[in-house]
Amino acid sequence: MGKNQDVVEMSTGMKNFVRTLDSVDFLKMDRRTFMKAVGVLGASAFLGTYKTQIVDALEFAETKLVWLHGSECTGCSESLLNGGNPDVAQALTKLNVNLAFHETLCAQQGIWNDGELVNTSELNSEILLEELYKEGKYILVVEGSIPNGPDGSGRYLVIGNKTFKDTLGEAAKNAAAIVAVGTCAAYGGITSADSDVAKDTDYRGVAFAKTDKTKGMLQELGIDKPVINIPGCPAHPDWVLLTLGAVILGKIKVPDDLDAALDEYGRPKVFYPPDHTVHENCPRRGYYDRGEFDEQVGGEKCLWKLGCKAPYAHADCGIRRWNGSVSMCTQAGGPCINCVDPGWPDSSRPLYVEREDVGIAGANIDTVAKVAVGAAAVAAGVHAVRRMKGE
Amino acid sequence: MVNVTVDPLTRIEGHQRISTEVDANGVITDAQSSSLIFRGFERILQKQDPRDAAFLTQRICGVCPLAHGLAATNALDDLYGVADQVPKNALVMRNIFQGLNMVASHATHIYVLFGPDLANPAYRNVLTTLGDTGNAVWKEMVGRFAPISYKMDGVAIPAGSSYMAAIPEKKRLQEAIALIAGRMPGPSSLYPGGYTYPATVADITKLSTYYLQVMDFVSNHTLKVPFDTWIENTYKASSPQKAVSFVTEHLQGLVDKSTTSNDFSKDAGWGDVEFYAAFGSELVGETLLGLPASLKHDTIGGYKDPSKICFVAYGGYYKPKDGYDPKSPAGDRIFTSGVVSGKLEYQKFDSDKVTESTAHSFYQNSANDFAPAKGETVPFTDPDKIVFTGGSDSQYSWDKAPRYDGIPGEVGPLARMLNIKEPLVTGLAQAFNEKGYSAANVYTRMLARMQEMAILAYELLNWVTVDYTPGGKISVPIDLNAAKNNQGMGLWEAPRGALGHWISAGSDGKVTNYQCIVPGSWLMSPRDSNGIPGPLEQSLIGSKINPVGNVDYTNPVGIFHMGRSYDPCISCAVHTIDLTGKRAPNTLRIL
Fold first, then answer.
1. Of A122, A125, A197, the CB nearest to B42
2. pLDDT the model gives residue B516
């Protein structure tokens, strides 16, 4: 942090900026306070308050990002491009935080003449990647899962004449920090859904296979490096940018702080609170407390009977909302599908049927409802749960 | 002969490889298009609640999730027998949300995916030898279209003005979708029988504001002629010839003004559309307007044999009334279904004529050709058989080869614009045809996308302000029992082209079969059982790897343009969901 502060003070053109920083004491916050501030303000409030500071802070940190795409739909990159404050373009244009590689955005592509790489890293993505691996010291972001199949070969995804499994290994070995963005990269996501070819494709997350942290692709490759998971289908851009910002600013030290900052599934607790679910801040929560439920779409009441999984979903969507905080799934009348869950989508299906028996991680409905109701539990809420259970 | 391979072709959705053989003149003599990934999670919907399809199929593609969600919802409307009752308001909401996403998707393609290649050093090398005019044109190209993190000869190049301005607009469009859909990507608002969110008057006002902000971007960067004037004289022109004349006269006016000043800036009236319309084409720019040089994008990416290509549209955007016909007969949708032959003859679309071949794909099916509903998806499980270098006779892609009546089909904006007989695009296609060019080429493909974006912006305003009735009915109830032993078909238009989902349910009302055929499969397909190359492969063969300048095998910018001009989506193209077991007779696939 001291180094960053020096950089700021050296820049004479940024006196006002430094004064602003001092007044909000953003950079001087210790790590715990920083994360607390993110947590307490939540979200868009934090980003709104500290918008300028975050944009400018990102500017002077000298960090490269290498963003790799495995088996993905580009939805998480799309989501990142929808990022609010700061927006990605703001963050990237002036950057010393440099998006050195991103398959959907980069100028380069793989160019081969008679099987040999040609041209330079300015046009050839594969030469660029080799140079980046050699230089190291980048933050590796992975979007999408990694096939281990068939037969452990990884050949169900081959990019630039290399299996993605091998590419991940090479990129991970030389990375200063690794962030898995989206439920696919974190846990396997939709590519790991139960099926009779799942055994053949053998899709893995970077550090997990569903809830199993011994079967991530890095473990398969024998690479022991910490990974921060930012699940979501897609991941919220705030979760991604704030996590990267925290790592870059040294507010989360990798690996020293990770045990404290992450939950058992590698998710930053500040965005995926263990004791808080989407249900708590759902805009339809009042209807739940009164036991009023929609049974046909298009209404305004609680969506529990349409299969809403918000009481199981450990995420801050309810306070953060999406796309410039204009809405969220339940606000628009669709049930929450708990897309941040390590077992998603199997753990949430059938999506439109209320779940009365077993919750995630073996918790039963009473436990889940109690967690959901939390400290603010009121008789009406408990009553609603009882009604749902038909007691 | 040099093998020139682009792998990966970046700035597309997903992972794609293009392998070509190139002669001493820089002309491609053979080509293979390979999708590089098998995502296959078979059985994911089988025995499941059909309604999950509208959610889960959105995960096929994060760039156009709404199109998959809508194709699935159409199939579900049909399955539950409510397609004829879906309230007008719900259909208008679906139109708005798809229209916004299509505009965002096209803008992303034009500015973030395709545009950066216009700042390729190959153009600098040619243009800067052409004196002040050439230098001025190059300055515009790199100044507008350079991507982020771009360097030339070790010097960092700032991202282009249009590129940078487009990103916040794309974000704004996605925000507008989220306003009525919850979030974007991956929204939750689709449901058979209607839509989950009744937009309020306040939402409509906000949507109108978003609209005006996006139109500011259009008038500052994209199109400098007043938007209404453009629509009136192109989309609403009384004939294709009149539309083309309007555009060429408009461009001639700009050229006359700029040839002395060498000012080709936006301030001088050169919006990005005007700029590309003039400089992108040899025929328009050099022959008609008398420009000293062009990018010659009309000379690459064309089809050499019109009998081996057609242009397919399933039909998209509902008419603003209660209910719709799931079969999408001609004229039922705002963008009609239809098929245009390689010789520009019009036919009616018949979904029974669609087949898929796996003769050159990495599958070990019991036969090579299937009707969609009966297809199989049995992937190679021997790693040593997954080889991309075996040449045109081998199996070389995870993509299958959809065919219409045995013919490869181009789908997407160009196919849609031809099928609705959009005057400007139709007129250009005819003009190129008459002058010995392929009607479809990189240039017409890009202009069709730009024109479709303009048309959607025009139609969207109607949908938002006229067709939607706040407070009106937004859904009808569905009877889950209606799905029992029933089937549904969902035909739709994704940003990249014709998209179909087919669903069947058993006696328990659960899914027995689910099938998708997607635009990426059509466009990027490998050869079929008759050895006919797919649309991209056909457009590569016979085209030059460098449309202008010297042959440079190490910078085959023509291949980049041709590959990206289709706006490929590979996650869609490769098989992602197959709902029945391997080798089972009824195979559900989502490609």
1. A197
2. 84
- Identify whether the C-beta of residue B347 lies closer than 8 Å to the C-beta of residue B340: yes
Q: Where are the alpha helices (DSSP H) in A136-236?
A: 164-173, 182-187, 198-201, 217-220
Q: ipTM score of the complex?
A: 0.95
* pLDDT tens-digit readout, A190-213: 999 987 788 899 999 999 999 999
**Chain A interface includes B249 (CB < 8 A):** no
Whole-Å CA distances, B9 to A66, B34, B441, B570: 17, 10, 19, 11
3-state secondary structure of A31: helix
CA–CA distance, B321 with B333 (Å, rounded to integer) = 11
Give contacts of B 194-233 with A, CB under 8 A: 194-198
Confidence band for A362, pLDDT divided at 50, 70 and 90: very low
Interface touch B553/A122, C-beta < 8 Å? no
Tens digit of pLDDT for each residue in B286-307? Answer: 999 999 999 999 999 999 999 9
Closest residue of B to A349, CA-based? B52
Cβ pair A99:B475 closer than 8 A: no
User: What local confidence, expressed as pLDDT, does residue A91 receive?
Assistant: 57
CB count within 10 Å of CB B239 equals 11
Residue A122 neighbours by CB distance under 10 Å? 17
Q: Is A116 on the interface with B (CB under 8 A)?
A: no
Q: Does B42 touch chain A (CB under 8 A)?
A: yes
> pTM, whole model, 2 decimals?
0.91
d(CA B408, CA B353): 12
Q: Is the pLDDT of residue B580 over 50?
A: no
Our CA-based measurement puts residue A6 at a distance from the nearest CA of chain B, in whole angstroms, of: 25
Closest Cβ–Cβ partner in B3, B174, B190 for A114:
B3
Q: Which of A78, A322, A69, A80 is nearest to B62 (CA)?
A: A78
3-state DSSP call for residue A34?
Answer: helix
Q: Where are the alpha helices (DSSP H) in A69-124?
A: 75-81, 88-93
